[in-house]
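Researcher: Here's my situation. A collaborator sent me these components and asked whether they could plausibly form a single complex. I don't have experimental data yet, so a predicted model of the whole assembly would be a useful starting point for our discussion.
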Amino acid sequence: MDQASSALLSLRGISHAFGANRVLKAVDLEVNAGEVLALAGENGAGKSTLMKIIGGYLPPQSGDVLWKQAPLPEGLRTVEDAGITLVHQEFALIPDMTVAENIHLGREPRKWGLIDRARMHRQAREALGLLNAEISPGAGLARLPVASWQIVELAKAFAARPHLLLMDEPTAVLGRDEAAALFDRIRAYTTAGGTVIFTSHRLDEVREIADRVAVLRDGQITLNKPIQDVSEHDIASAMVGREMSDLFVPRITPVVARPVLEVEGLDVPREIGAPVKDASFALYPGEILGVAGLVGAGRTEMFEGLVGLRPAHARRFALSGKDQVLPCAREAWQCGIAYLTEDRKSRGLLLDKDLLVNATLVSGALFGGARIDRRADAADFDAARARFDIRAAGPATTAGQLSGGNQQKLLLAKTLATDPQVVILDEPTRGVDIGAKSQIYRIIAKLAEQGKAVVVISSEMPELIGLAHRILVMDRGRISGVLTQPEDGQISEHEILRLGLGLENEEDAA
Amino acid sequence: MSMALDMGKTDRTLPKLMGLLGKLGPLLALALLVVVGALVSPTFSTTENILNVLTRSSIIGIIAIGATFVITSRGLDLSVGAMAALVAGLSVMVMNGLSASLSATLAVVLGLVAALFLGAAAGFVNGTLTVKGRVEAFIVTLGTMGIMRSLVTWLSDGGSISLDFALRGVGRPLYYGTVLGIPVPIIVFGLLAIAGELVLTRLRFGRHVAAIGSNSEVARYSAISVDKVRIATYVLQGVCVGIATLIYVPRLGAVTPSTGMLWELEAIAAVIIGGTALSGGQGRVWGTVAGVLILGVVSNILNLTDFISPHLNGAFQGAIIIVAVFLQRKRVSA
């Protein structure tokens, strides 16, 4: 009771849903002044949503946010004025302005009504200096690398002198030294009375900088303890631990066969984050290969590079044992390699076009004649609708009108319309409800049964464990290991986390 | 199941009707204008005047059919007016040059063939610079517009490029000729409009054009050769310009630095009035035809009547464009 009244920020029963997807379920949380709270959780656990609610970007659908024992005023501007600043995962910077201008955006120092450039640059240099960054205040932002953007964003946040600083994955694009400098800055800031809430996937970072850790799982707090009272194992356990086994079809062991697709030394350059380096793997008929890793580990990039959707280079690429050069996007489809994008809305479906056009887009582009055969298209669509159980009023409905689950099934129908031999599914169940999820799992299992080589990239570990024969884990652009399902049980989430969170060395040392 | 579907149908009757009304908007507007024209001027509804309006509209109309494809794929071609002038000028020079060694007919035919190739080539340059060079279409075609316009001025030495008198009679029927009483330009325009509508709605190419305009990333992720299709729309636009010059050259027999001035804006206006979205993804050739005719009829009515000065033609065109887009915008949000 006593503690509650002294809390700087109290969340009482915060709930939020996007459509049918309940992201936060009655979250209670308190943060004291001068504290660093780490918010941990898997992708989709609700961390970013919670941060946005505290930062005033999103009003909670129910529950109260108390700031210094009074209700938090609504609206972004008033929340910022109250002393709460959110550093986004996406940058809120203006590329055409200089570093100093960005740091002072909206709070430019003035002298006789004009902007005091000298003071602005001096202050910017100080703010950057505190983060140990050697970035010139006069440099144009557009020409700086992404890590520098993050540092400028952080400098800007600190320069606003907030009471509470919210940081969503602040180290995702930073190098080791930059992250260390950020942690020094956070320590100095909290010593001076500041308070920090930050999210991170990396448990080693949580351990290093946080005073307390709270874990979100499926929109609920599953752990909330001082950092010295918990181990990384405790945190990892609190992050996972759902029972999803009944959603899955029993795995069928594939017949031993030669690989359909082999790649060695695949490099995919990237502007943001770690590039994919020297990746080698093989896909076998009838096998489901799961691909795990943190957001930003390069999973999507690796496979988009493989199928020609982004520039890539490989030492060797072979289809059914035959060496060839990496295909371009259209050639990949022609070789029987299908890729289902994780970005359904902006890369997967034509939201303003009807279901028929969407469902037959790939098959038409690959094998359709110059003339559109409306009758054949309609027949194909009816078959696909039955096979994938797409529920819609009629073929004239536009894709944008469907629910997330039905959109995803339409995307599957479109991707699988050409009967590809290699099927790469990137986050095939993102943003769909549990019912559609289980249907999609059945479709995936069926593909493997038919002898296709299937790849499932997913951020949900239970999904990978339930579906895959082998799980390939990526960490910062490299394949950190491949796990095979043991004869007498299942791959554990801890094994995946160990490879994907860069904990391997620490455990080896211990 | 069928119950639920039937209920859905009745629920949607009203929006469907409204949608249909909005969809047919350009045709209704055209019909309304024709009625107004017939009421305010007795000359308007004479066969001669109607054919005159259609003939005059056909050159812009043919160019606008090409523009429909470019805009549907979310492109833009500002250079069509200058391109028409340059292609016309060069084809006249080809005809004049060949007439010394070949028969007049052959010279004109080869000149017209040259016009088609030149148009296609100019479109290919626009398309390649835009697609492969990754420069915005607005910038590329603004640039090529300036280049082609000034080439015409240079070739004509500021004056005009005239077709030799000996050749004029040969090409004349292409503009002034009639088949079964219908002027040739109208027939060409009509056939191209039908072909264009079929290509856009019934051919794979047309579907890909609309898919790219709707979301080029989705198209790229769907095994569509996005670059090729986009370049092809510019080539198609160039060919349409070439065909328009086939009709234009015989009409006046001369090309001046002001030939084709502002045609690009008239063509784009017609496309937009017809209901093709400037942001791409939704295109219809029949709408473009209606758009061209709306512009032609308005101008004709102003010319026939005294109470509004024909000098205000531009103001009417401007107002029509804004109103048309406004109405379409409302339809989408409703």
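Model: Some features of this prediction you could bring to your collaborator: DSSP finds 20 helices and 22 strands in chain A. Residues 245-336+420-509 of chain A form a domain with the Rossmann fold fold (CATH 3.40.50.300).
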